[in-house]
Amino acid sequence: MTELLDNVLAGRVCRGQGPGTTLVDPVHGTPLVRVDATGLDLAAGYAHARETGGAGLRALDPRQRGQMLAAIVSLLQSRREAYHEIARANSGTVRQDSALDIDGAIYTLSTYARLAAQLPDAPGQAWLPHTDALSLAKDGSFQTRHIASPVAGLALFINAFNFPAWGLWEKAAPALLAGVPVVLKPATATAWLAQRMVLDVIEAGLLPDGALSVVCGGSDGLLDALQPFDVLSFTGSAATAATLRGHPAITHRGVRINVEADSVNSALLMPGTTPDSPAFGLFVDELVREMTVKSGQKCTAIRRAFVPDHLRPVVAEAVQARLAAVSVGDPREAAVQMGALVNRRQFDDVTHGLERLRTATRTVFDGRRQALVGALDPRVACCMAPTLLAIDSPQAVEDSALVHDLEVFGPVATLLPYADLPQAVRQVRRGQGSLVVSLYGEDAPALARTAVELANHHGRVHVVSPESARSHTGHGNVMPQSLHGGPGRAGGGEELGGLQALAFYQRRTAIQAAPSVLAAL
Ligand code: NAP
Protein backbone atom coordinates (compact mmCIF):
# COMPACT_ATOMS: atom_id res chain seq x y z
CA MET A 1 0.00 0.00 0.00
CA THR A 2 1.24 3.51 -0.80
CA GLU A 3 1.75 6.16 1.89
CA LEU A 4 -1.35 8.00 3.11
CA LEU A 5 -0.65 11.75 3.13
CA ASP A 6 -1.33 13.87 6.19
CA ASN A 7 -3.92 16.64 6.23
CA VAL A 8 -3.38 19.73 8.37
CA LEU A 9 -6.42 20.89 10.33
CA ALA A 10 -6.93 22.58 13.70
CA GLY A 11 -3.22 23.29 13.81
CA ARG A 12 -2.11 19.65 13.69
CA VAL A 13 -1.52 16.88 11.18
CA CYS A 14 -4.30 14.33 10.89
CA ARG A 15 -5.24 11.46 8.58
CA GLY A 16 -8.50 10.45 6.96
CA GLN A 17 -10.13 7.27 8.28
CA GLY A 18 -10.94 5.72 4.88
CA PRO A 19 -8.87 3.76 2.35
CA GLY A 20 -8.24 6.97 0.39
CA THR A 21 -7.71 7.71 -3.30
CA THR A 22 -4.45 6.65 -4.91
CA LEU A 23 -2.57 9.27 -6.95
CA VAL A 24 -0.94 7.78 -10.03
CA ASP A 25 1.96 8.62 -12.34
CA PRO A 26 0.15 9.53 -15.59
CA VAL A 27 2.99 8.25 -17.76
CA HIS A 28 3.65 4.77 -16.32
CA GLY A 29 0.59 4.25 -14.17
CA THR A 30 2.68 3.68 -11.01
CA PRO A 31 0.76 4.27 -7.76
CA LEU A 32 2.39 7.14 -5.82
CA VAL A 33 0.61 8.13 -2.59
CA ARG A 34 -2.94 8.16 -1.19
CA VAL A 35 -5.09 11.04 0.03
CA ASP A 36 -8.15 10.88 2.24
CA ALA A 37 -10.33 13.28 4.22
CA THR A 38 -12.87 10.79 5.62
CA GLY A 39 -14.01 11.53 9.14
CA LEU A 40 -12.13 14.82 9.63
CA ASP A 41 -13.83 17.22 12.05
CA LEU A 42 -14.15 20.11 9.61
CA ALA A 43 -16.31 22.25 11.89
CA ALA A 44 -13.69 22.15 14.66
CA GLY A 45 -10.85 22.68 12.16
CA TYR A 46 -12.57 25.71 10.63
CA ALA A 47 -13.30 27.13 14.09
CA HIS A 48 -9.61 26.84 14.99
CA ALA A 49 -8.62 28.55 11.73
CA ARG A 50 -11.09 31.41 12.25
CA GLU A 51 -10.35 32.01 15.91
CA THR A 52 -6.72 31.04 16.50
CA GLY A 53 -5.39 31.49 12.95
CA GLY A 54 -7.33 34.70 12.36
CA ALA A 55 -6.27 36.22 15.68
CA GLY A 56 -2.62 35.28 15.06
CA LEU A 57 -2.60 36.93 11.64
CA ARG A 58 -4.46 40.03 12.78
CA ALA A 59 -1.96 40.49 15.60
CA LEU A 60 0.62 41.20 12.89
CA ASP A 61 0.61 44.40 10.88
CA PRO A 62 0.63 44.22 7.06
CA ARG A 63 4.40 44.66 6.80
CA GLN A 64 5.03 41.81 9.23
CA ARG A 65 2.70 39.64 7.20
CA GLY A 66 4.76 40.57 4.13
CA GLN A 67 7.91 39.38 5.95
CA MET A 68 6.07 36.13 6.66
CA LEU A 69 5.51 35.67 2.91
CA ALA A 70 9.19 36.39 2.26
CA ALA A 71 10.16 33.61 4.70
CA ILE A 72 7.87 31.19 2.84
CA VAL A 73 9.59 32.18 -0.43
CA SER A 74 13.02 31.25 1.00
CA LEU A 75 11.74 27.93 2.27
CA LEU A 76 10.06 26.96 -1.01
CA GLN A 77 13.16 27.94 -2.95
CA SER A 78 15.30 25.68 -0.78
CA ARG A 79 12.98 22.70 -1.47
CA ARG A 80 12.53 23.34 -5.18
CA GLU A 81 14.12 20.08 -6.36
CA ALA A 82 11.84 17.95 -4.18
CA TYR A 83 8.84 19.81 -5.64
CA HIS A 84 10.03 19.15 -9.18
CA GLU A 85 10.26 15.41 -8.42
CA ILE A 86 6.68 15.37 -7.18
CA ALA A 87 5.41 17.37 -10.18
CA ARG A 88 7.12 15.10 -12.70
CA ALA A 89 5.77 11.96 -11.00
CA ASN A 90 2.24 13.19 -10.28
CA SER A 91 1.54 15.65 -13.11
CA GLY A 92 3.73 14.02 -15.79
CA THR A 93 5.20 17.40 -16.73
CA VAL A 94 8.59 18.28 -18.25
CA ARG A 95 10.84 20.48 -16.11
CA GLN A 96 9.89 23.70 -17.88
CA ASP A 97 6.19 23.05 -17.33
CA SER A 98 6.69 22.12 -13.67
CA ALA A 99 8.68 25.36 -13.29
CA LEU A 100 5.72 27.35 -14.56
CA ASP A 101 3.77 26.02 -11.58
CA ILE A 102 6.51 25.93 -8.91
CA ASP A 103 8.54 29.01 -9.87
CA GLY A 104 5.33 30.82 -10.82
CA ALA A 105 4.14 30.20 -7.25
CA ILE A 106 7.40 31.44 -5.74
CA TYR A 107 7.46 34.52 -7.97
CA THR A 108 3.87 35.39 -7.07
CA LEU A 109 4.58 35.04 -3.36
CA SER A 110 7.72 37.15 -3.60
CA THR A 111 5.81 39.83 -5.52
CA TYR A 112 3.27 40.07 -2.69
CA ALA A 113 6.06 40.06 -0.09
CA ARG A 114 7.46 43.13 -1.89
CA LEU A 115 4.07 44.79 -2.38
CA ALA A 116 3.52 44.61 1.38
CA ALA A 117 6.07 47.42 1.73
CA GLN A 118 3.57 49.72 -0.03
CA LEU A 119 0.98 49.16 2.68
CA PRO A 120 0.80 51.69 5.52
CA ASP A 121 3.40 51.18 8.22
CA ALA A 122 1.01 50.76 11.12
CA PRO A 123 2.35 48.49 13.86
CA GLY A 124 -0.35 46.38 15.46
CA GLN A 125 -3.06 47.71 13.13
CA ALA A 126 -5.12 45.07 11.29
CA TRP A 127 -7.24 47.44 9.15
CA LEU A 128 -6.21 49.53 6.14
CA PRO A 129 -7.54 52.90 4.99
CA HIS A 130 -9.85 52.60 1.99
CA THR A 131 -11.03 56.19 1.37
CA ASP A 132 -10.39 59.60 2.83
CA ALA A 133 -13.10 61.28 4.88
CA LEU A 134 -16.05 62.95 3.08
CA SER A 135 -18.36 65.35 4.84
CA LEU A 136 -21.98 64.33 5.51
CA ALA A 137 -22.91 67.65 7.18
CA LYS A 138 -22.81 71.20 5.78
CA ASP A 139 -20.42 72.33 8.50
CA GLY A 140 -18.24 69.19 8.26
CA SER A 141 -19.05 68.12 11.83
CA PHE A 142 -20.17 64.65 10.69
CA GLN A 143 -18.15 62.68 8.15
CA THR A 144 -17.74 59.26 6.56
CA ARG A 145 -14.57 57.36 5.93
CA HIS A 146 -14.16 53.80 4.64
CA ILE A 147 -11.78 51.31 6.15
CA ALA A 148 -10.89 47.79 4.99
CA SER A 149 -10.46 45.09 7.62
CA PRO A 150 -9.70 41.41 7.11
CA VAL A 151 -12.92 39.38 6.81
CA ALA A 152 -13.88 37.87 10.14
CA GLY A 153 -13.93 34.29 8.86
CA LEU A 154 -11.62 32.05 6.84
CA ALA A 155 -10.85 31.67 3.15
CA LEU A 156 -11.57 28.24 1.67
CA PHE A 157 -9.73 27.54 -1.60
CA ILE A 158 -11.06 24.77 -3.85
CA ASN A 159 -8.49 24.40 -6.60
CA ALA A 160 -8.10 22.83 -10.05
CA PHE A 161 -5.62 20.06 -10.87
CA ASN A 162 -3.45 21.90 -13.38
CA PHE A 163 -1.54 24.32 -11.10
CA PRO A 164 -1.27 22.66 -7.68
CA ALA A 165 1.50 25.00 -6.46
CA TRP A 166 0.70 28.30 -8.18
CA GLY A 167 -3.05 27.81 -7.59
CA LEU A 168 -2.37 27.61 -3.86
CA TRP A 169 0.04 30.52 -3.47
CA GLU A 170 -1.54 33.00 -5.91
CA LYS A 171 -4.58 32.91 -3.60
CA ALA A 172 -2.81 32.41 -0.27
CA ALA A 173 -0.42 35.34 -0.79
CA PRO A 174 -3.13 38.07 -0.85
CA ALA A 175 -5.29 36.25 1.73
CA LEU A 176 -2.49 35.92 4.30
CA LEU A 177 -1.30 39.44 3.54
CA ALA A 178 -4.84 40.70 4.19
CA GLY A 179 -4.81 38.81 7.51
CA VAL A 180 -7.19 35.96 6.65
CA PRO A 181 -6.57 32.27 7.56
CA VAL A 182 -6.64 29.78 4.69
CA VAL A 183 -8.03 26.28 4.28
CA LEU A 184 -6.88 24.63 1.05
CA LYS A 185 -8.64 21.81 -0.74
CA PRO A 186 -6.40 20.92 -3.70
CA ALA A 187 -7.76 18.92 -6.65
CA THR A 188 -7.38 15.26 -5.73
CA ALA A 189 -5.49 14.22 -8.87
CA THR A 190 -2.45 16.41 -8.08
CA ALA A 191 -2.91 17.11 -4.36
CA TRP A 192 0.57 15.85 -3.42
CA LEU A 193 2.59 18.93 -4.38
CA ALA A 194 0.29 21.40 -2.62
CA GLN A 195 0.09 19.15 0.45
CA ARG A 196 3.91 18.90 0.59
CA MET A 197 4.32 22.67 0.39
CA VAL A 198 1.76 23.33 3.13
CA LEU A 199 3.34 20.70 5.38
CA ASP A 200 6.82 22.18 4.82
CA VAL A 201 5.59 25.66 5.78
CA ILE A 202 3.75 24.36 8.87
CA GLU A 203 6.70 22.24 10.03
CA ALA A 204 9.03 25.23 9.60
CA GLY A 205 6.76 27.27 11.90
CA LEU A 206 6.55 30.19 9.46
CA LEU A 207 2.90 31.01 10.12
CA PRO A 208 0.77 31.58 13.21
CA ASP A 209 -1.01 28.47 14.50
CA GLY A 210 -4.13 27.77 12.40
CA ALA A 211 -3.29 30.25 9.62
CA LEU A 212 -2.92 27.54 6.94
CA SER A 213 -4.70 24.17 6.71
CA VAL A 214 -4.95 21.56 3.97
CA VAL A 215 -7.65 18.96 3.41
CA CYS A 216 -6.87 16.44 0.64
CA GLY A 217 -8.86 13.75 -1.03
CA GLY A 218 -12.50 14.76 -0.96
CA SER A 219 -14.89 17.67 -0.89
CA ASP A 220 -17.64 16.19 1.30
CA GLY A 221 -18.82 18.68 3.92
CA LEU A 222 -16.35 21.43 2.95
CA LEU A 223 -19.07 23.95 2.15
CA ASP A 224 -21.46 22.75 4.86
CA ALA A 225 -18.95 23.92 7.47
CA LEU A 226 -18.68 27.46 6.04
CA GLN A 227 -20.17 30.31 8.08
CA PRO A 228 -21.38 33.82 7.20
CA PHE A 229 -18.06 35.68 7.37
CA ASP A 230 -16.07 33.09 5.41
CA VAL A 231 -15.11 33.49 1.75
CA LEU A 232 -14.76 30.80 -0.92
CA SER A 233 -12.40 31.00 -3.85
CA PHE A 234 -13.03 28.33 -6.47
CA THR A 235 -10.99 27.42 -9.54
CA GLY A 236 -12.23 24.65 -11.82
CA SER A 237 -14.92 23.75 -14.30
CA ALA A 238 -18.10 25.76 -14.86
CA ALA A 239 -20.13 22.65 -13.99
CA THR A 240 -18.61 22.39 -10.50
CA ALA A 241 -18.90 26.16 -10.07
CA ALA A 242 -22.64 25.95 -10.77
CA THR A 243 -23.04 23.30 -8.05
CA LEU A 244 -21.12 25.40 -5.54
CA ARG A 245 -23.07 28.57 -6.34
CA GLY A 246 -26.29 26.72 -5.41
CA HIS A 247 -25.01 25.58 -2.00
CA PRO A 248 -26.81 27.04 1.06
CA ALA A 249 -23.49 28.46 2.30
CA ILE A 250 -23.68 30.81 -0.70
CA THR A 251 -27.43 31.18 -1.15
CA HIS A 252 -28.39 31.46 2.54
CA ARG A 253 -25.35 32.19 4.66
CA GLY A 254 -23.93 34.96 2.48
CA VAL A 255 -20.49 33.41 1.95
CA ARG A 256 -18.70 35.51 -0.66
CA ILE A 257 -17.55 33.43 -3.66
CA ASN A 258 -14.98 34.07 -6.38
CA VAL A 259 -15.10 31.79 -9.42
CA GLU A 260 -12.35 31.15 -11.96
CA ALA A 261 -13.83 28.76 -14.53
CA ASP A 262 -13.66 27.54 -18.14
CA SER A 263 -12.65 29.88 -20.91
CA VAL A 264 -12.45 29.58 -24.69
CA ASN A 265 -9.64 32.14 -25.08
CA SER A 266 -8.65 33.76 -28.36
CA ALA A 267 -5.61 35.09 -30.18
CA LEU A 268 -6.10 37.55 -33.04
CA LEU A 269 -3.64 38.24 -35.84
CA MET A 270 -4.56 41.78 -36.87
CA PRO A 271 -5.47 42.76 -40.45
CA GLY A 272 -2.61 44.20 -42.48
CA THR A 273 0.00 41.70 -41.31
CA THR A 274 2.01 39.80 -43.91
CA PRO A 275 3.81 36.45 -43.60
CA ASP A 276 7.17 38.20 -43.40
CA SER A 277 6.10 40.71 -40.74
CA PRO A 278 7.32 40.35 -37.13
CA ALA A 279 3.72 40.16 -35.83
CA PHE A 280 3.09 37.06 -37.96
CA GLY A 281 6.07 35.24 -36.42
CA LEU A 282 5.10 36.32 -32.91
CA PHE A 283 1.57 34.99 -33.44
CA VAL A 284 2.82 31.61 -34.68
CA ASP A 285 5.33 31.35 -31.79
CA GLU A 286 2.68 32.05 -29.22
CA LEU A 287 0.08 29.71 -30.68
CA VAL A 288 2.56 26.81 -30.71
CA ARG A 289 3.68 27.64 -27.16
CA GLU A 290 0.10 27.78 -25.91
CA MET A 291 -0.81 24.44 -27.51
CA THR A 292 2.18 22.64 -26.04
CA VAL A 293 2.99 24.20 -22.63
CA LYS A 294 1.55 21.91 -19.94
CA SER A 295 0.01 19.91 -22.80
CA GLY A 296 -2.55 22.68 -23.25
CA GLN A 297 -3.90 22.18 -19.70
CA LYS A 298 -3.97 25.88 -18.94
CA CYS A 299 -7.16 27.81 -18.28
CA THR A 300 -5.63 30.68 -20.25
CA ALA A 301 -4.47 28.63 -23.28
CA ILE A 302 -5.35 29.82 -26.79
CA ARG A 303 -8.27 27.72 -28.04
CA ARG A 304 -9.40 29.93 -30.95
CA ALA A 305 -6.79 31.50 -33.23
CA PHE A 306 -8.27 34.18 -35.53
CA VAL A 307 -6.41 35.02 -38.75
CA PRO A 308 -7.20 37.12 -41.85
CA ASP A 309 -8.90 34.81 -44.35
CA HIS A 310 -6.15 35.01 -46.97
CA LEU A 311 -3.46 34.11 -44.39
CA ARG A 312 -5.11 30.93 -43.09
CA PRO A 313 -3.16 28.49 -45.36
CA VAL A 314 0.20 30.09 -44.62
CA VAL A 315 -0.44 30.25 -40.86
CA ALA A 316 -1.56 26.60 -40.94
CA GLU A 317 1.62 25.62 -42.75
CA ALA A 318 3.88 27.52 -40.33
CA VAL A 319 2.15 26.15 -37.21
CA GLN A 320 2.09 22.54 -38.37
CA ALA A 321 5.79 22.63 -39.24
CA ARG A 322 6.52 23.76 -35.69
CA LEU A 323 4.18 21.24 -34.07
CA ALA A 324 5.81 18.38 -36.01
CA ALA A 325 9.11 19.25 -34.33
CA VAL A 326 7.74 18.97 -30.78
CA SER A 327 8.73 15.70 -29.08
CA VAL A 328 6.03 14.33 -26.80
CA GLY A 329 6.30 11.52 -24.28
CA ASP A 330 7.95 10.49 -21.02
CA PRO A 331 9.16 13.65 -19.24
CA ARG A 332 12.13 11.66 -17.88
CA GLU A 333 13.58 11.47 -21.43
CA ALA A 334 15.92 14.41 -22.08
CA ALA A 335 14.62 14.99 -25.61
CA VAL A 336 10.99 15.29 -24.55
CA GLN A 337 9.49 18.81 -24.66
CA MET A 338 5.90 17.99 -23.78
CA GLY A 339 4.82 15.46 -21.13
CA ALA A 340 1.47 13.91 -20.27
CA LEU A 341 -2.08 14.91 -19.54
CA VAL A 342 -2.78 14.59 -15.86
CA ASN A 343 -4.65 11.28 -15.77
CA ARG A 344 -6.74 8.83 -17.74
CA ARG A 345 -9.98 10.70 -17.06
CA GLN A 346 -8.50 13.87 -18.47
CA PHE A 347 -7.04 11.93 -21.44
CA ASP A 348 -10.49 10.47 -22.19
CA ASP A 349 -12.19 13.89 -21.77
CA VAL A 350 -9.77 15.52 -24.20
CA THR A 351 -10.12 12.63 -26.69
CA HIS A 352 -13.91 12.93 -26.51
CA GLY A 353 -13.87 16.74 -26.78
CA LEU A 354 -11.53 16.57 -29.75
CA GLU A 355 -13.82 14.12 -31.50
CA ARG A 356 -16.71 16.57 -31.00
CA LEU A 357 -14.66 19.48 -32.34
CA ARG A 358 -13.64 17.41 -35.36
CA THR A 359 -17.32 17.25 -36.38
CA ALA A 360 -17.27 21.03 -36.94
CA THR A 361 -13.71 21.48 -38.23
CA ARG A 362 -11.01 20.10 -40.53
CA THR A 363 -7.86 18.55 -39.04
CA VAL A 364 -4.73 20.42 -40.14
CA PHE A 365 -2.22 18.62 -37.96
CA ASP A 366 -3.22 15.33 -36.37
CA GLY A 367 -1.48 14.53 -33.09
CA ARG A 368 -2.57 10.89 -33.35
CA ARG A 369 -0.05 10.40 -36.16
CA GLN A 370 2.93 11.54 -34.05
CA ALA A 371 5.27 8.98 -32.49
CA LEU A 372 5.63 9.29 -28.73
CA VAL A 373 9.06 9.20 -27.05
CA GLY A 374 9.88 6.66 -24.32
CA ALA A 375 8.91 3.11 -23.38
CA LEU A 376 5.19 3.81 -23.09
CA ASP A 377 2.21 1.51 -22.79
CA PRO A 378 -0.49 3.20 -24.90
CA ARG A 379 -3.21 1.79 -22.62
CA VAL A 380 -1.60 3.54 -19.65
CA ALA A 381 0.42 6.58 -20.75
CA CYS A 382 -1.66 9.78 -20.87
CA CYS A 383 0.61 11.38 -23.49
CA MET A 384 -1.07 13.12 -26.42
CA ALA A 385 0.63 15.08 -29.21
CA PRO A 386 -0.92 18.45 -30.21
CA THR A 387 -3.68 18.73 -32.80
CA LEU A 388 -4.43 21.81 -34.91
CA LEU A 389 -7.92 22.13 -36.37
CA ALA A 390 -9.31 24.73 -38.78
CA ILE A 391 -12.53 26.12 -40.19
CA ASP A 392 -12.18 27.03 -43.82
CA SER A 393 -14.22 30.20 -44.35
CA PRO A 394 -15.34 33.26 -42.37
CA GLN A 395 -18.96 32.32 -43.03
CA ALA A 396 -18.41 28.84 -41.56
CA VAL A 397 -16.91 30.50 -38.46
CA GLU A 398 -20.13 32.55 -38.15
CA ASP A 399 -22.21 29.41 -38.61
CA SER A 400 -20.37 27.29 -36.03
CA ALA A 401 -21.47 27.38 -32.39
CA LEU A 402 -19.37 24.52 -31.06
CA VAL A 403 -15.96 26.03 -31.69
CA HIS A 404 -16.84 29.13 -29.66
CA ASP A 405 -18.35 27.13 -26.86
CA LEU A 406 -16.42 23.91 -26.23
CA GLU A 407 -13.28 24.09 -24.11
CA VAL A 408 -11.09 21.05 -24.81
CA PHE A 409 -8.63 21.16 -21.90
CA GLY A 410 -5.63 19.75 -23.77
CA PRO A 411 -3.18 20.40 -26.65
CA VAL A 412 -5.81 21.52 -29.14
CA ALA A 413 -6.52 24.80 -30.96
CA THR A 414 -8.59 25.83 -33.98
CA LEU A 415 -7.63 28.30 -36.73
CA LEU A 416 -10.54 30.57 -37.57
CA PRO A 417 -10.44 32.89 -40.62
CA TYR A 418 -12.14 36.28 -40.58
CA ALA A 419 -13.13 38.66 -43.37
CA ASP A 420 -12.57 41.99 -41.60
CA LEU A 421 -11.84 43.34 -38.13
CA PRO A 422 -15.46 43.99 -37.07
CA GLN A 423 -16.28 40.38 -37.90
CA ALA A 424 -13.23 39.14 -35.98
CA VAL A 425 -14.21 41.18 -32.91
CA ARG A 426 -17.76 39.80 -33.12
CA GLN A 427 -16.49 36.22 -33.28
CA VAL A 428 -13.99 36.67 -30.42
CA ARG A 429 -16.89 37.88 -28.28
CA ARG A 430 -18.77 34.65 -28.94
CA GLY A 431 -16.57 33.08 -26.27
CA GLN A 432 -19.12 34.72 -23.92
CA GLY A 433 -16.44 36.04 -21.62
CA SER A 434 -12.85 34.81 -21.48
CA LEU A 435 -9.81 35.08 -19.26
CA VAL A 436 -7.60 36.48 -22.01
CA VAL A 437 -7.40 37.54 -25.65
CA SER A 438 -4.10 38.35 -27.33
CA LEU A 439 -3.62 40.70 -30.30
CA TYR A 440 -0.67 40.61 -32.72
CA GLY A 441 0.01 43.55 -35.01
CA GLU A 442 2.13 46.57 -35.79
CA ASP A 443 -0.35 49.45 -35.99
CA ALA A 444 -0.42 50.85 -32.43
CA PRO A 445 -3.66 52.90 -32.75
CA ALA A 446 -5.51 49.93 -34.29
CA LEU A 447 -4.21 47.62 -31.53
CA ALA A 448 -5.28 50.10 -28.86
CA ARG A 449 -8.77 50.52 -30.37
CA THR A 450 -9.28 46.76 -30.62
CA ALA A 451 -8.00 46.21 -27.06
CA VAL A 452 -10.61 48.63 -25.75
CA GLU A 453 -13.36 47.08 -27.90
CA LEU A 454 -12.63 43.63 -26.47
CA ALA A 455 -11.96 44.75 -22.90
CA ASN A 456 -15.40 44.19 -21.39
CA HIS A 457 -15.48 40.57 -22.56
CA HIS A 458 -12.09 39.73 -21.04
CA GLY A 459 -10.10 39.84 -17.84
CA ARG A 460 -6.90 40.56 -19.72
CA VAL A 461 -6.04 41.84 -23.22
CA HIS A 462 -2.45 40.89 -24.07
CA VAL A 463 -1.13 43.03 -26.92
CA VAL A 464 2.02 41.94 -28.76
CA SER A 465 3.77 44.29 -31.18
CA PRO A 466 7.38 44.24 -32.40
CA GLU A 467 8.60 46.68 -29.73
CA SER A 468 7.58 44.21 -26.99
CA ALA A 469 8.62 41.10 -28.93
CA ARG A 470 11.31 40.18 -26.43
CA SER A 471 9.74 41.51 -23.27
CA HIS A 472 6.08 40.50 -23.42
CA THR A 473 5.13 38.06 -20.68
CA GLY A 474 3.15 35.59 -22.81
CA HIS A 475 -0.51 35.13 -23.67
CA GLY A 476 -1.01 32.39 -21.10
CA ASN A 477 1.16 33.56 -18.23
CA VAL A 478 -0.69 35.04 -15.30
CA MET A 479 1.38 37.84 -13.77
CA PRO A 480 0.68 38.82 -10.14
CA GLN A 481 0.76 42.52 -11.11
CA SER A 482 -2.13 42.03 -13.59
CA LEU A 483 -5.71 41.01 -12.99
CA HIS A 484 -6.61 37.34 -13.53
CA GLY A 485 -10.22 36.28 -14.09
CA GLY A 486 -12.81 36.84 -16.77
CA PRO A 487 -16.46 37.87 -17.08
CA GLY A 488 -19.36 35.65 -18.15
CA ARG A 489 -18.58 31.99 -18.66
CA ALA A 490 -15.05 32.50 -17.32
CA GLY A 491 -16.72 32.74 -13.91
CA GLY A 492 -16.88 36.49 -13.33
CA GLY A 493 -14.03 36.32 -10.83
CA GLU A 494 -11.08 38.59 -10.14
CA GLU A 495 -7.75 37.57 -8.65
CA LEU A 496 -4.29 39.14 -8.40
CA GLY A 497 -3.71 42.55 -9.99
CA GLY A 498 -1.27 43.66 -7.29
CA LEU A 499 -2.71 44.92 -4.02
CA GLN A 500 -6.26 45.06 -5.41
CA ALA A 501 -6.32 41.26 -4.80
CA LEU A 502 -6.62 41.97 -1.08
CA ALA A 503 -10.13 43.37 -1.60
CA PHE A 504 -11.74 39.90 -1.81
CA TYR A 505 -10.37 39.08 1.64
CA GLN A 506 -11.41 42.37 3.21
CA ARG A 507 -14.61 43.89 4.49
CA ARG A 508 -15.04 47.54 3.58
CA THR A 509 -16.89 49.48 6.25
CA ALA A 510 -18.10 53.06 6.31
CA ILE A 511 -17.31 54.68 9.65
CA GLN A 512 -19.60 57.71 10.15
CA ALA A 513 -18.52 59.99 12.95
CA ALA A 514 -17.26 63.39 14.00
CA PRO A 515 -13.84 64.35 12.60
CA SER A 516 -12.16 63.80 15.99
CA VAL A 517 -13.38 60.19 16.10
CA LEU A 518 -12.25 59.52 12.55
CA ALA A 519 -8.89 61.04 13.35
CA ALA A 520 -8.60 58.72 16.36
CA LEU A 521 -9.15 55.57 14.28
P1 NAP B 1 -13.21 20.45 -11.49
O1 NAP B 1 -13.48 19.04 -11.82
O2 NAP B 1 -14.33 21.42 -11.53
O3 NAP B 1 -12.55 20.42 -10.01
C1 NAP B 1 -12.09 21.58 -9.41
C2 NAP B 1 -12.09 21.40 -7.90
O4 NAP B 1 -13.42 21.29 -7.43
C3 NAP B 1 -11.37 20.14 -7.42
O5 NAP B 1 -10.64 20.44 -6.27
C4 NAP B 1 -12.53 19.20 -7.13
O6 NAP B 1 -12.20 18.20 -6.20
C5 NAP B 1 -13.52 20.16 -6.57
N1 NAP B 1 -14.89 19.71 -6.56
C6 NAP B 1 -15.52 18.93 -7.46
N2 NAP B 1 -16.81 18.76 -7.10
C7 NAP B 1 -17.00 19.44 -5.94
C8 NAP B 1 -18.11 19.64 -5.06
N3 NAP B 1 -19.30 19.14 -5.32
N4 NAP B 1 -17.93 20.40 -3.96
C9 NAP B 1 -16.74 20.95 -3.68
N5 NAP B 1 -15.64 20.78 -4.48
C10 NAP B 1 -15.78 20.04 -5.59
O7 NAP B 1 -12.06 21.07 -12.40
P2 NAP B 1 -10.64 20.42 -12.80
O8 NAP B 1 -10.91 19.25 -13.69
O9 NAP B 1 -9.80 20.21 -11.60
O10 NAP B 1 -9.98 21.61 -13.63
C11 NAP B 1 -10.17 21.80 -14.99
C12 NAP B 1 -11.07 22.97 -15.28
O11 NAP B 1 -10.70 24.08 -14.48
C13 NAP B 1 -10.99 23.46 -16.70
O12 NAP B 1 -12.28 23.61 -17.21
C14 NAP B 1 -10.29 24.80 -16.63
O13 NAP B 1 -10.67 25.73 -17.60
C15 NAP B 1 -10.64 25.26 -15.27
N6 NAP B 1 -9.58 26.11 -14.75
C16 NAP B 1 -9.80 27.45 -14.66
C17 NAP B 1 -8.82 28.29 -14.17
C18 NAP B 1 -9.03 29.77 -14.05
O14 NAP B 1 -8.22 30.45 -13.42
N7 NAP B 1 -10.08 30.33 -14.62
C19 NAP B 1 -7.59 27.76 -13.78
C20 NAP B 1 -7.40 26.39 -13.90
C21 NAP B 1 -8.40 25.58 -14.38
P3 NAP B 1 -11.71 16.73 -6.66
O15 NAP B 1 -10.45 16.92 -7.41
O16 NAP B 1 -11.53 16.05 -5.35
O17 NAP B 1 -12.81 16.18 -7.49
Summarize this structure as a short list of keywords or feature phrases.
521 residues; alpha/beta; seven-stranded mixed β-sheet; five-stranded parallel β-sheet; 16 helices; 23 strands; 36% helix; binds NADP nicotinamide-adenine-dinucleotide phosphate
Please state how the strands of the largest beta sheet are arranged side by side: 16-17-18-15-14-19-20
Mean of residue pLDDT values:
96
Helix content: 25-40%
The coarse silhouette is globular
The tally of helices reads 16
From the N-terminal CA to the C-terminal CA, the straight-line distance is 58 Å
Give the names of the bound compounds: NADP nicotinamide-adenine-dinucleotide phosphate
How would you describe the overall organization of this protein?
With 521 residues, this protein is an alpha/beta fold. The protein is 36% helix and 20% strand. The protein has helices at residues 42-58, 62-78, 80-91, 95-115, 164-178, 191-203, 238-245, 248-251, 278-292, 312-324, 344-358, 394-399, 402-405, 421-429, 444-455, 515-519; strands at 3-4, 7-9, 12-14, 21-24, 31-35, 128-129, 134-135, 143-150, 155-158, 182-185, 212-214, 231-235, 256-260, 265-269, 302-308, 362-365, 387-390, 412-418, 434-440, 458-464, 483-484, 495-496, 506-513. Strands 16-17-18-15-14-19-20 form a 7-stranded mixed sheet, sandwiched between helices. Strands 11-10-9-12-13 form a 5-stranded parallel sheet, sandwiched between helices. Strand 9, helix 5 and strand 10 form a beta-alpha-beta unit. The longest helix has 21 residues, at 95-115. The mean pLDDT is 96. The structure holds NADP nicotinamide-adenine-dinucleotide phosphate. NADP nicotinamide-adenine-dinucleotide phosphate is lined by residues 158-162, 185, 187-189, 218-219, 222, 235-237, 240, 243-244, 260-263, 299, 407, 409, 435, 491.
